[in-house]
Design brief:
nine-stranded mixed sheet, 14 helices, FAD/NAD(P)-binding domain, alpha/beta, eight-stranded mixed sheet
């Protein structure tokens, strides 16, 4: 079988050394078979192993091959649609539960890093940067909203204050979330995989799930083996393909692009981001950036609907970087890559169960680093018979894309064009 390596990226080039893992060659039996060794799958596996389950993880390529190992590396709280939108959709009781969970994913990441001694350049502090007065007004109401759900590590920043943390004159203000932060995303997922194995879990790489035999004792087939399990957790997200057709209809893979500069040196890096916080702006089609552990600027943005790989990533992202930091005009770009995330029409995650024993979580819609860690805990709770938090997510309304799979890409691209105009003209 062909071996799928990591795509070229700064993260793959600076990943911590790990032993190669075997492909599944025979038949194994387990309590829970997890499909996908990214954050959702490994978070689920860890919580289950900590409660005595036997867990087998199947990964089509390598641990963290998908969005978990290629994202912007930012710990951002809440969901892609905030709690007030959820409240209007589902009412106060369900929103209360989801609101309480909105800040849990970041705490889970920090607990994992501390408990399992994961080396992933964890730094505290994330900035939401406002370009217009309307965006600043939104941050003010967001702070009040988050504080209503007990989230208090927030500071509104005026123009003078934001200049102290970001040397960029585009911003008129912002909000600092000290429970936000950033990590080396691939090293985090590799550390979580090692933690899974330290607790007796098994991970097979280069072992794509090609078919699920549903029923009372489900079986997951790979090209050279199969796993018999009591439960299955489907955690493939944007890289699931058509393995579970019911899930493919309600979601769309989208690409986002990231570039990484050469090392900037301590002086230039400190001049740009003195406290080493990560930053994202408040545009609908947002830009996000941060410093790496070795003082490179990692800058991402742009969305390609339908997950095509754009021909020249640097040509798309470098102008955005130079608009924020013109002082980098002579700096070399060492890495440029793309990765897919899974978009839902509501931009809220889809969580549920197929039959009695197949559980899934997907569709973080670009807000995955924290949500996936929470999802793992919620899925593990449901398998242990505590379904209240699982049900709060499972009851969120979801819709297929209009026109089905054929029309979902042009439909979403049209929406992005409209929101791009809104960003540009500030209305």
């Amino acid at each position: 079988m062909a071996h799928t390596p990591y795509p070229e990226s700064y993260y793959a080039a600076s990943a911590n050394a790990v032993p190669p893992r075997p492909a599944l060659q025979d038949e194994v039996e387990t309590d829970v078979c997890v499909i996908g060794a990214g954050y959702t799958g490994l978070s689920s596996a860890l919580f289950l192993l900590e409660h005595g389950f036997r867990v087998t993880v199947l990964e089509a390529a390598k641990v963290g091959f998908g969005a978990s190992g290629r994202n912007g590396g930012q710990i951002v709280n809440s969901y892609s649609r905030d709690i007030d939108v959820i409240e209007r959709s589902v009412g106060p009781k369900q929103a209360q539960l989801l609101g309480q969970m909105a800040f849990e994913g970041g705490r889970i990441i920090r607990e994992r890093v501390a408990k399992y001694n994961i080396q992933c350049d964890l730094k505290d502090g994330g900035v939401f940067a406002a370009i217009t007065a309307k965006q600043m007004g939104h941050l003010e109401s967001q702070k009040r909203l988050w504080e209503r759900f007990g989230h208090t590590q927030l500071e509104l920043m005026d123009q003078r204050r934001i200049r102290e943390v970001v040397a960029c004159d585009q911003y008129i203000g912002g909000m600092l979330d000290m429970s936000g932060g950033h990590i080396h995303p691939l090293n985090l997922v590799l550390g979580e995989a090692a933690a899974v194995e330290s607790l007796g879990g098994t991970i097979y790489e280069q072992s794509p799930a090609v078919r699920i035999e549903r029923g009372a004792s489900p079986v997951v087939h790979t090209p050279q083996g199969k796993v018999r399990a009591k439960f299955i957790i489907v955690a493939g997200n944007a890289y699931l393909g058509n393995l579970v057709p019911e899930l493919a209809a309600k979601s769309m893979p989208c690409g986002t692009q990231v570039i990484t500069t050469e090392p900037l040196g301590e002086e230039l890096a400190r001049a740009m981001l003195p406290q080493d916080y990560c930053v994202e702006d408040c545009n609908y089609l947002l830009d996000y950036y941060r410093l790496s552990g070795d003082k490179r600027l990692i800058f991402g943005g742009g969305v390609v609907y339908g997950a095509r790989d754009p021909a020249n990533i640097e040509a798309i992202i470098r102008p955005k970087m130079l608009k924020a930091f013109p002082q980098l005009k002579d700096v070399k770009i060492d890495y440029a890559w793309t990765g897919n995330f899974l978009l839902t029409l509501s931009r809220l995650p889809q969580v549920g169960r197929l039959g009695d024993n197949i559980y899934y979580s997907q569709g973080c819609s670009g807000h995955g680093v924290t949500y996936t860690h929470l999802a793992g805990k919620v899925l593990a709770e449901a398998l242990r018979g505590q379904a209240e938090r699982f049900d709060a997510f499972a009851d969120l309304p979801h819709y297929p894309f209009p026109g089905g799979q054929m029309l979902r890409t042009p439909f979403a691209a049209l929406g992005a064009w409209y929101y791009g105009l809104r960003d540009k003209f500030g209305f």
